[in-house]
Amino acid sequence: MDQKFHPVELLTVAEIAGALRVSKMTVYRKVHSGELPSVQFGRSFRIPATAVEAYMPEASGSHPKGTAD
Fold it and tell me: For the whole model, what pTM was predicted?
């Protein structure tokens, strides 16, 4: 039973909030609603960097036509 784990970059809520320039509460809402997958360690949440990258095109495509650059 020799399992190998792939390295996964996990980000904190504060790191994601800073990178996206939103509040930590906004990130927590996305986590709790299931829009942003996460892993919970005790009382802390960690979000895989790949989940943030996957979320970005979805979020950028949600602007009404003509308002996004």
Answer: 0.74
